[in-house]
Amino acid sequence: MGRYDRLREFRRLDPDRDYHRIYRDMALLEFPWDITMGIQLGFYRTFAVPGISALLDRTGEMTAHTQRRLDNTAILLFEAIHYGLEHERGQAAVRQMRRVHGAAMQRAGTDRPWRIPDHEFVYVLGAFVIPTLRWLDVYAWRPICCHERTALFRFYQEMGRLMGVRGTRPRCRSSRPGSTRTNGSISATRKRTSASGTPPAHS
């Protein structure tokens, strides 16, 4: 397979319909290290929300069982990425995520409503999208295209729907090329492109 063959293949697909195929190949073949790094950064970002960090502190999962919590999150997430959200194993991973979060609320006590607020779930899902896009814009070996942006967004939007989360955006504003980029990241992308060869013209 040539250097940009997979990108050309992505552009022949419909990112709203084929989002899993595109995102799976991004995560497992095209940008495996970068996607993993983006997900890790997004995971850390969730601690910035007082409600989320308070819950994690109350359950003790991130303080007493840190590595287990990280491993379990990675296993469930990449199970869904690998098999897809329409596959039995992907859906089983999502059901387990729901059970884990329900159990976390029970362990945390009763000073908050049992249900984790939807806006906190939406933030966590967004944390797996935006930091990943920003990382890819600056450090990936090539610029990502609008199909890849849309597919990444659609995957986590569908995950939220399966988890019963309300309030996810119906459309991906970040699907426009460059919408998550800073001037510095655009400059870095241009330098990287000129140094590594010319990809197909449109992004």
Automatic annotation (TrEMBL):
Biased composition (Polar residues): 176-188
Residue ranges constituting the ER-bound oxygenase mpaB/mpaB'/Rubber oxygenase catalytic domain according to the UniProt record: 38-167
Record region (Disordered): 167-203
Domain of life: Bacteria
Lineage: Bacteria, Bacillati, Actinomycetota, Actinomycetes, Pseudonocardiales
Designated name of the protein: Uncharacterized protein DUF2236
GO MF, one annotated term: oxidoreductase activity
Pfam family, one: MPAB_Lcp_cat
InterPro entries linked to this entry: MPAB, MPAB/Lcp_cat_dom
